[in-house]
Design goal:
With 95 residues, the chain is mainly alpha-helical. It has one domain. Helices cover 64% and strands 0% of the residues. It is built from five helices and no strands. The longest helix is centred in the middle third of the chain and has 22 residues. The radius of gyration is 21 Å and the shape is elongated. The termini are far apart. The N terminus is likely disordered. Bound molecules: zinc ion. Zinc ion (ZN) binds next to helix 1.
Amino acid sequence: MSEHTPSTHNHDCGPLDCRVVLEQLWEYLDGELSEDTTLLIRQHLALCSSCYPQYDFEKAFLDALADCRCTRCAPHELRGRVVDALRSAGFSSTA
Ligand SMILES: [Zn+2]
């Protein structure tokens, strides 16, 4: 009655374990993972019905965050403006 082994989780989700995928989901969405890992996770998400909702949720969250970033803070644009201001004040950006 004990054929229940927790390690038999490979239900056609590719080589990655769900836990591994979920742990790296934010980095995946941020594009911070290596090409190989990104590919493996993308593959896993396409096949795994238990990870996909989580991915969907985090992606929606990041999309909302990105919207907010564009309209309010725009760190890149802001940095450009600061550099311009420094340059016109006589500083040269050698860095
Ligand atoms: Zn999974």
